[in-house]
Specification:
The complex is a heterodimer.
Chain A: H1 2-17, H2 19-55, E1 61-65, E2 77-78, H3 79-86, E3 91-105, E4 112-120, E5 130-133, E6 143-147, H4 148-152, E7 161-168, E8 171-183, E9 193-197, H5 198-204, H6 209-213, E10 218-219, E11 221-226, H7 232-242, E12 246-250, H8 251-256, H9 261-293, H10 295-303, H11 308-339, H12 351-378
Parallel strand pairs in A: 4-9, 6-8
Antiparallel strand pairs in A: 1-11, 1-12, 2-10, 3-4, 3-7, 3-11, 5-8, 6-9, 7-8
Chain B: E1 4-15, E2 18-30, E3 35-39, H1 46-53, E4 61-66, E5 69-70, H2 76-86, E6 87-90, H3 102-112, H4 118-130, H5 146-158, E7 164-168, H6 176-193, E8 196-200, E9 212-217, E10 220-225, H7 228-236
Parallel strand pairs in B: 3-8, 3-9, 6-7, 7-8
Antiparallel strand pairs in B: 1-2, 1-4, 4-5, 9-10
Helix pairs in contact in B: 3-4, 3-5, 5-6
The chains are: A alpha+beta, B alpha/beta.
Bound molecules: adenosine-5'-diphosphate and magnesium ion.
Adenosine-5'-diphosphate sits between chains B (13, 15, 20, 22, 40, 42-48) and A (387-389).
Amino acid sequence: MKKMSIAAYLAVKEIWKFRGRFLLVSLVIGLITLLVLFIAALGEGLGNGNREYLSKLDGELIVYQAKSDFLIPASRLDLNRFSEIKNVEGISDVGLLGTANSQLLLSGDDNFLKTALLGVEPGHVGEPKVIEGSQLSAADADEVILDRNVILRSNIQLGDTITIRVTQGTEDQVFTLKVVGITDGQQYALQPSLFVPFFTWDRIRPKSQAEINFSDPVANVFIVKVDQPENVEIIRDRIEEKIENVETATRKEAIQALPGYSAQQSTLNTQGGFTLFIGILVIGGFFQIQVLQKISQIGVLKAIGSANSVVAWASIIQITLITMIGVAIGAGLTFLFSLFFPPQVPIVFNGTTTAIAIIALLLIGPLGGLVSIRYAVRIEPLKALGLSS
Amino acid sequence: MNALETKSVIKTYQSDSGVISAVDDVSLNVASGEFVALVGPSGSGKTTMLSILAALLKPTSGQVLIDGVDLSSLDDFQRVNMRREKIGFTFQANNLVPYLSAVENVELMLRLNNKLDKAGKLRARELLARLGLGERLNNYPGQMSGGQQQRVAIARALIHNPSLVLADEPTASLDTERAYQVVETFASLIHEQNRAGIMVTHDLRMCEFVDRVLIMEDGKLTKILKDRADIRKLSSARN
Ligand SMILES: Nc1ncnc2c1ncn2[C@@H]1O[C@H](COP(=O)(O)OP(=O)(O)O)[C@@H](O)[C@H]1O
Ligand SMILES: [Mg+2]
């Protein structure tokens, strides 16, 4: 205990005396923190933009066309199979989902917002709950529920009529829809979403020339809600057994299979990891140079009777303090910067991710300093006399 | 009882050209209240001997007793305690902790010994004032001259009431005038406080203030001067 207090005394005194030098290292750690937190927030934001709709679904299973590799746009399911799946035992609800893209026209010349155009079944799983207004009324109504991200990026309000533009065959077509409800964030494929009744969707979605003439509506996937969530795997097998030519994914598997999702997340994680590694090298380098400059001084401390543990603890306390100050500076900078980021930049500060990043950042100090601490402990007190044994 | 006693201390090093006897069969005593100079040409074994007395280096053979305690009977942990409690040090250079002020450097010795109380703080200030540093208490080593730093080191070497005070070339970086001042004050403090003091020096003029001069040559203790007249003759000779 007494040793600890002497170690803390020496550590703090040294930091204070050479505060300029130490602040510089803290600033570097602060910048590394800024970078790591932004990479984490970007990963969270991009990931969220990709998976938000799927992750908030009230259903447990997604049914795809067989061999579609869980790629929603590549999957085609006709309505015959939809009626069959409804009869599978243990399913409490099933809904159609059709996905496409559209341009939401905004006021001003040729001003538009790229949106995901999602066809869902009113009153069934897959239709998100509104936080304002009402749900969709009928399977073919000219109504739309807006993701709140649409509201954030336009001046559209509940009750307005919106116009979307899609390409059907070789022609651009425009359709008008009435805004009946607004949901919380429901992005899909990094775009804000428009939810329309399934049969409306089938009418207004982008189509090839062939599709215009082919009139049977086709969904991409079905969303299944089971009676008892603990039976998901049983129901899953049952669906794949009873329905021809389908494959099923859990929500988690469906998210992982989103185009680019895994690759993007692992790229960002690697970047974050590398930045942390650079942090370890920077801190390690600084403290190693520092201890090399202090050989005779540490020798004197030991010669006059400081225990090795005092020297070691002084280093550990010092490195930890400098890292903490740096991380605090970085967190503050991150907060300041985040205030000035426009809403289009997909940055989301998630509590858990940020906490993990901060813990990792706090660990890079002691990790980086390990070599220098070891070195300091091994300095012989004889160095005070300019000798070695 | 002598504060310091050595019996047939030998320190040898193995080198390419054979065995070097850095210290060769040295026996000596220093009593409390006695200030002794250890002199000799470069390479004669002074620093090696001092390191052994300081419990920083183990002799190849022989005994070192501080306050009657045989250093060879101590483990590493006890040797650290011995240095902290019983010994005071000044080194040739870079004596002080650069991020502590003069008074903090002196107090550090009390802190390490868990003896930093009000009285201790007062004594540290008095001692520094006595050494002419009353105006410099809060200066950092970087703001002081070599002589001032050396005097802070002397205060640090004495503040915790050690039995033995070891000084390695305390005047090496000082001009003659400063050197005389420093050693004179050092000597009078050793005498007043009744410590056993050993000063390694190559500057024979500094022997003017000591009670005895031990002369080393090739690791051996070849001559001991006790007589004031002999010492004065040595210290006034040109070197
Ligand atoms: N670690 C060592 N290894 C080998 N030889 C050493 C070592 N330390 C000192 N010596 C030798 O011991 C002798 C005495 O050295 P030293 O005690 O430094 O003398 P002084 O301080 O009187 O100049 C010298 O010959 C020196 O080369
Ligand atoms: Mg020497």
